Amino acid sequence: MRKAPAAAAVLGLALAAAGPARAISSGAGTSGANFLEIGQGSARAMALSGAYVALAEGSDALTWNPAGLAATQQREFAFSYLSYVQGLQSPVYMAYAQPMGRTAWGVNAGYMSEGGFDVRDQNGIPQQNTSALVRDGYATFGVARSFFYEKLYLGASLRGIHQEIVGAAYNTVSADAGAILHATNALTFGLALQNFGPPTSDVAHTVRGGAALRHNDFFTTTMELRNASDTGTQFAIGEEFSLPEEYLDVGQLSLRVGYQTVDSYGQSFNSTLKTLYLDQTSGVSFGFGLYTSEAFGYGLSLDYAFVPYGALGTVDQLSFKLKF
User: 86 near 106, Cβ under 8 Å?
Assistant: First the structure.
């Protein structure tokens, strides 16, 4: 009995339902490494509903747009914890970015696991007393460079991917390429091609395009249109309010909200979500961030994102970054 493919399809549908997709398309669950579409590593990006292709910078850029690596001004180390829907967990995500003049390079690595999926045979019949253990992981190396007095950033990265389902291992590679154009001091455009691999690879690839407008020192609006080969096209928009460090004694405070076009995923019976009128909400995201440049001579940031997905549950991501 071919148990692993059935478990893979179940996992793919779960990720397609809760990940960045407008709806569960006919291709959902048919591509490998769907977990790459979740967006590990940046609570800021997740709070903005993933509308981050034009804002990506530093070590965060390895997940969203490798061109943003060129914005790295100091060495960065980042760590993130992600609790996803349906019991999926990402206890390990780490990234590092290193500037070298107009060039910067970075690496990241992530791991995700889940052990409670039912196993079905090729006829869709559940297998008694059997569950699927899923382990997903990847590691990325990227390089970016700035041009024309930092008006244009170009970057690329290479990623190794490992996926293990019921003992069956799947390994492949994929590549990303991206560009960020600072049209003015306030307006930025971004483009990224993600997870493109060899002809034998069935990894779902994504094309992202978007813009970010900084209205003043306090408000930034970001928008993105993305298309994934397995889940179709989606629009996302985010708004960030930041109170700069000079206005506070402790550091910078940021509040974020976002929206992405997704279908309704039913109603949650969580009492807290009901109280907040979020029990039937899908597509809205929230978050906040704290940053200080004066923590014992280092820059420290802490970001949190919260995303409700109706009956599927909620997503929480906590990110920590050290600049030195």
Answer: no
Q: How far is CA 277 from CA 121, 269, 284, in A?
A: 40, 11, 12
Q: What is the pLDDT of residues 114-145, one digit of tens each?
A: 766 666 666 766 666 566 677 889 999 999 99
**Listed residue (236, 278, 283) closest to 263, CA to CA:** 283
Amino acid at 188: T
Q: Residue 112: which of 323, 315, 320 has the closest Cα?
A: 315
Which residue, 230, 284, 278, 277, is CA-closest to 262?
A: 284
For the record, the structure tokens of 294 come out as 């004066």
Residue 204's φ and ψ, nearest 5 degrees, are: -70, 125
Amino acid identity, residue 301? S
Which one-letter amino acid corresponds to residue 234?
Q
pTM (whole model) above 0.85: no
Query: By the 8 A CB rule, do 152 and 180 touch?
Result: yes
Please name the residue that has the structure tokens 């590593």.
41
**C-alpha span between 247 and 292 (Å, rounded):** 12
**Range scoring the smallest mean pLDDT among 34-43, 99-108, 201-210, 275-284:** 275-284
Q: Are residues 205 and 183 in contact, defined by beta-carbon separation less than 8 angstroms?
A: no
Tell me the helices (H) and strands (E) count for the chain, helix number first: 4, 14
Identify the domain containing residue 74 by its residue range: 3-323
Helix runs in the chain, H state only: 3-18, 43-47, 61-64, 271-275
CB atoms within 10 A of CB 6: 24
Cβ(251)–Cβ(303) below 8 Å: no
Cross-strand partners of 211: 189, 223
Q: How many domains is the chain built from?
A: 1
Query: What CATH code is carried by the domain that includes residue 143?
Result: 2.40.160.40
